[in-house]
Write a structure and sequence with these properties.
By secondary structure, the chain is mainly alpha-helical. It has 2 domains: about 160 residues, no CATH class; about 250 residues, no CATH class. Helix 14 runs antiparallel to helix 17. The radius of gyration is 22 Å and the shape is globular. The two termini are about 20 Å apart.
């Protein structure tokens, strides 16, 4: 299959699963903000923050190696070895991690029920992540998407029952997340791509070492990007308090829609980047994809900026109004993070995962330093600004580092114009009056007409062509 067609197909398919949890998240957001205090919401966000660093340590990012090697595996016997070795390792680490986690939190005087819910949630999420990438490595993006939908719908239903109806507040939210992950894990285990390929006799220590040798170098990068993404929450909580962290967490909800949109594309893009690397025109293909990505994702973010004032009024209670003014700055962070992820997929394709860590570590240090220097002067703005600055620095580093491995052509005049439109829209969004909002809408529509018209037309044509062929 042509890589462009494969990319469009996978992006369309994965978008169904990728957008579902975000849609469910928006539906359940009023339930959380109305039934949890800002302090409880800040605590829940803190749990998610800690989980984001523990899971890479628990799994050693083995799902990245499993996906990479399954994608290029030659036969079913080889796939059985990769899947069995991965799952044996995963089961061992999850069981051990759960026991250690519960004991550790009990020693820290955390309520036993809360400790159990947190460990259950983290363990279930680790299984969910690795099994999902295993299905993707087997080419089963449809089943992977269905697994996401199962998690999302289950989470929503249990949020309604446990939080809105039974009023279990924080414990209810943690249980809703954990149950959602567990139901999705059960579904994936029942699939023949997992069930029939898991055979203990195919466990191979050498192949496990091979997978971990590929995936383990990604862990420092994951932790560093966690610092860039999440250390803000810890610093804000420590200096400004849990309520301020609840405000900051709420501010991230709308920009995270963009992150989700890009993560959907990036899953499909990573597969295409790996498959096309060995071809003679890999450099041209990467250059073309970067140009399309830059304009399309900037067009998406301009549209998000334009509708942010309306979305904020609909989704958030008035007590979260301070969060609004962080959003325009946070948009810069998520935009540069998408370019960082684009480059990260190329590192995976060329099997140079060790190169990812240095830029991520540098970005993490910059994030913490800027945050600590500014937070007492400008409050929450320090967290938003430090995130944007750190991702920009990582982006610049990878721009130069990848030049040593593969040549990518850039259209700098178009990029400068796009960033200028981005800046103007962000300022107008922050001003928050009728005329500034109208200007944001005009910029968003105009930019997409100029730069994304042909891309959108071709995308729609491809989708209709696929539907017609199936018909």
């Amino acid at each position: 299959m042509d890589e462009n067609k494969r990319l469009i197909k996978n992006t369309f398919l994965l978008s169904i699963g990728g957008l579902t949890p975000k849609f469910i998240g928006l539906v359940t957001l009023p339930i959380a903000t109305r039934n949890l205090t800002t302090g409880e919401y800040g605590t829940y966000d803190l749990v998610l923050t800690v989980a984001a660093i523990l899971i890479p340590l628990l799994t050693l990012q083995i799902q990245q190696g499993t996906f990479r090697f399954l994608l290029t595996s030659k036969d079913n016997d080889e796939r059985k070895v990769y899947i069995t070795s991965t799952l044996v390792y995963l089961i061992f680490t999850v069981v051990l991690g759960t026991i250690v986690g519960v004991i550790g939190m009990l020693i820290a005087d955390i309520m036993p029920l809360v400790a159990l819910c947190i460990c259950l949630m983290i363990s279930a999420e680790a299984l969910y992540i690795v099994l999902g990438q295993t299905l993707r490595g087997m080419g089963k993006n449809g089943k992977y998407t269905l697994a996401i939908i199962i998690y999302s719908v289950s989470y929503m239903l249990f949020m309604i029952v446990l939080v809105a109806w039974l009023k279990l507040s924080l414990i209810g939210v943690l249980l809703a997340v954990a149950i959602g992950y567990l139901l999705s894990v059960i579904y994936m285990i029942c699939q023949k791509e997992i069930r029939c390929y898991f055979r203990p006799k195919h466990f191979s220590k050498n192949n496990l070492k091979k997978i971990l040798a590929f995936s383990a170098p990604i862990v420092p990068s994951s932790i560093s990007l966690w610092v860039v993404n999440m250390s803000d929450r810890l610093i804000v909580t420590g200096i400004l308090g849990l309520s301020a962290n609840g405000i900051y967490s709420a501010a991230n909800k709308i920009p995270s829609l963009y992150s989700t949109a890009y993560s959907i594309f990036n899953m499909a893009w990573t597969e295409s980047a790996v498959r096309s690397y060995e071809s003679d025109d890999a450099s041209d293909y990467y250059s073309k994809m970067f140009r399309y990505l830059f304009h399309f994702m900037l067009g998406v973010i301009l549209l998000l900026i334009a509708v942010t004032p309306l979305m904020f009024v609909i989704l958030f209670d008035v007590k979260y109004d301070d969060a609004y003014y962080q959003i325009p700055i946070l948009y810069f962070g998520v935009f540069f993070s998408s370019i960082v992820s684009f480059y990260g997929s190329i590192y995976i394709a060329v099997q140079q995962t060790k190169h990812v860590a240095s830029s991520s570590i540098a970005g993490a240090i910059i994030n913490v330093v800027v945050n600590l220097l500014l937070i007492k002067w400008i409050g929450l703005y320090a967290a938003s600004i430090s995130t944007a600055v750190s991702y920009l620095c990582i982006c610049i580093y990878r721009f130069f580092d990848l030049k040593k491995m593969i040549e990518i052509k850039y259209y700098f005049s178009e990029m400068i114009f796009g960033i200028l439109m981005f800046l103007i829209s962000a300022v107008c969004c922050h001003i928050r009056n009728f005329y500034s909002i109208i200007l944001c809408i005009v910029i968003a529509i105009g930019y997409n007409i100029v730069f994304n018209r042909s891309l959108l037309i071709n995308f729609i044509k491809a989708i209709f062509l696929k539907i017609r062929k199936k018909g």
